[in-house]
Amino acid sequence: MKRFLILLLAAIGATAAWGQTNATNAAAGKPTEQKPAQQEIGLTSGHFIYDGGKRVVIYFDHVVVTNFQGRLTCERLTIDLPPEGSTNNQPTNAVAETNVVINFINKGDTNHVTCDRAVYAYSVVNAVTNNTITFHGSTNSPAEVQNSKGTTTGEPLVYDLVSGQFSGVNTVMHFLVPSGTGNGTNSSPLNLFNAH
Question: What is the pLDDT of residues 106-143, one digit of tens each?
Fold first, then answer.
């Protein structure tokens, strides 16, 4: 996830003012885990606005962003670009809003994230790098992450790209634990309520 989102946002920031491109494999909803020789980022939307004075680009109406590892869809994507002349082309902030869906492959597992808003924040303060993605939902529909291991919901869910920590507030988790094979019983300690 870290590589996907950083590459995705960095590439968007570097190319935002120069227009939109189409994705190939991921546009068909088929992300792959092999890293290609070149990073192709696809970004389509109904409209976009680039404001060079404010160093911001806004994509809206059916936004789809893809790369070799995944796909992000939303209704509005706002990206704060680094200052003019900066040697670091990494966006400082990016916000995906309304019907946010992120599908990506990480370590062979397909992950599916749904939320109302995803906020990417990057800063370096006193030589300390802060680099996070916060997934926001609502009281009735919290942010959710699903993969082959289970489902986690929370409001919000936070992924720290520096430490690799994933955390949440008011979380609910449902794990998928393989059943044991010992004497025909379920030997997993997490399946206490699944006795035969």
Answer: 778 888 999 999 999 888 888 888 888 999 998 889 99
CA separation, residue 89 to residues 13, 97, 175 (Å): 7, 23, 39
| pTM for the whole structure | 0.70
- Domains contained in the chain, CATH given: 2-171 (2.60.450.10)
- pLDDT tens for residues 81-95? 888 877 777 788 899
β-pair type (42-44, 109-125) = unpaired
Question: What is the token pair recorded at 163?
Answer: 């430490």
Buried-state track 165-182, b at ≥16 Cβ within 10 A, e below 16 = eeebeeeeeeeeeeeeee
Q: Model confidence at 37, in pLDDT bands (50, 70, 90)?
A: low
The pair of structure tokens assigned to 56 is 């911001």
Q: In this structure, how many other beta carbons lie within 10 angstroms of the beta carbon of residue 93?
A: 15
Burial class (CB in 10 A: 0-12, 13-18, 19+), 120: buried
| Measured distance CA(167)–CA(194) in Å, rounded | 27
